[in-house]
Amino acid sequence: SVVAVWGGSSELDVYQPFFSGKVMHFDNYARFGTLPHAIGVHCQRGRKPSSPNQDDFFVLQRQEWLCFGVLDGHGSHGHHMSHLVQETLPKCMLGRCMDSAQGQQQRDWPVAISEAFHEVAKKLQEKYAKEACASGTTASVVLLRRDPVDPTVNGSGGATRLRCAFVGDSCIVYGR
Asked: What region holds the PPM-type phosphatase domain (predicted)?
């Protein structure tokens, strides 16, 4: 099963104190300690008096893979844009990139992630046609997974691969 953490948004967020943390939701929280990757997430409201926290995030993890994303909304409806992307991008992305039953790669990453971004952009236009003219969100996503075991090669499994993609002026910085 998938372990998940994601941000929660509300119109009342505009009344939260400056620099207050974002509401977080958890699924299968008890399983976090059994998974191979430790994660940390923090998201807080900035100092714009009339604007809620427009940032959002998601973390999805199984034994075989870890997927996470950070979204930075902008414009007067940026919080709606980032929240819709947070709700739809993981499913679009993983549906194109992974065999959910096995956690194995199905398709070429650049093609799959590009298609996922385009599908989510289309959903934004459909749901927020008027608002999307002056608002939007960046999206930075990472998929970390171990390649499936190759039966022709001795060893404990394939290489761990990190794949990332971004749209907008946000990016991924990877350090070892």
From this structure: 38-176
